[in-house]
Give the backbone structure.
Amino acid sequence: MSSQEISEENLPSEQDTAHGAVAVADDPFADPGLPAHKPRIQDIDEEAAKRSERTVAFLFTLSMLATVGFIASFVTFPVDQIVYIWLFGHVSALNFSLGLTLGLALFCIGAGAVHWARTLMSDVEVADERHPISAEPEVKAKVMADFKAGAQESAIGRRKLIRTTMFGALAMVPLAGVVLLRDLGPLPEKKLRETLWAKGKMLINQNTMEPLRPEDVAVGSLTFAMPEGLKEDDHEFNNEIAKAALMIVRIQPADIKDKRQLEWAHEGIVAFSKICTHVGCPISLYEQQTHHVLCPCHQSTFDLSDGARVIFGPAGHALPQLRIGVNDEGFLEALSGFEEPVGPSFWERG
């Protein structure tokens, strides 16, 4: 319908301007003004207001309990536990409980805030004229006055139960994030300083999975060994072999320059950590004539005839040596564990 087809009877007449409306007969898009305010039951019935207050407090309290449940779930459920839950099937108990409790904690805070605003805070609509971006002193004073009025109308000072439970819920929810910091990894404790090597542990050939005898190690050969009792199907195999892997080399005793190395060897058979002291790569390249081993990652080079000291590359210190001997059955065995941490430097090796 065009504007020409609108009859005078259909044009809006002048409206009541009590609420700031400026309607004229020839303006079809006149501001109708704000509707009359209708009080809610909570505004006229204090018992209804008390019920709303208790509802909001209940939601905030439920949020606190859910946060406690989140922390308890994180501590209680193992990472690999799977449970069956109707409608969801087989799920991770940890993930399901964390999602459920954290979601409930956040939902209850939001629901409590919404219910508080809709039933107890002032719902009177206020029209305000637009003003320039730069506020005048009078505007700033008005904003502060409006803020104080809003705080008074929210009844946060008078509704102590709501205020206390809200602060409690908001204070406890961040604890969920603090607990999640645990997922940065378990505390290493002394795990990085210790390996499975100990006095009496036999040296097991990683290729044959049999204990090594001195005659099994030829001069100039390189053999890889691991401690007795460690199996490839063990749950912690990768973690343990990454620290306990050995290089076994036989050198003519006359060619060994380091006195302690000779004392810790058996008939020229020396055992050094296979883990590079730069960033932990496995060393596997051996040069028979020079007795040098090379890390393939960053070319750190170690002299196995001189205490496995670094002669080239970014590695910071020599490879740790394992003291070995022969047991009553003629097998090579460790006479002690490593006397220093294996692998790259960490925390100043302290």
Remarks:
- The two ends are 87 Å apart (CA to CA).
- The first strand starts at residue 82 and ends at 85.
- The chain has a mean pLDDT of 86.
- The first helix runs from residue 41 to 44.
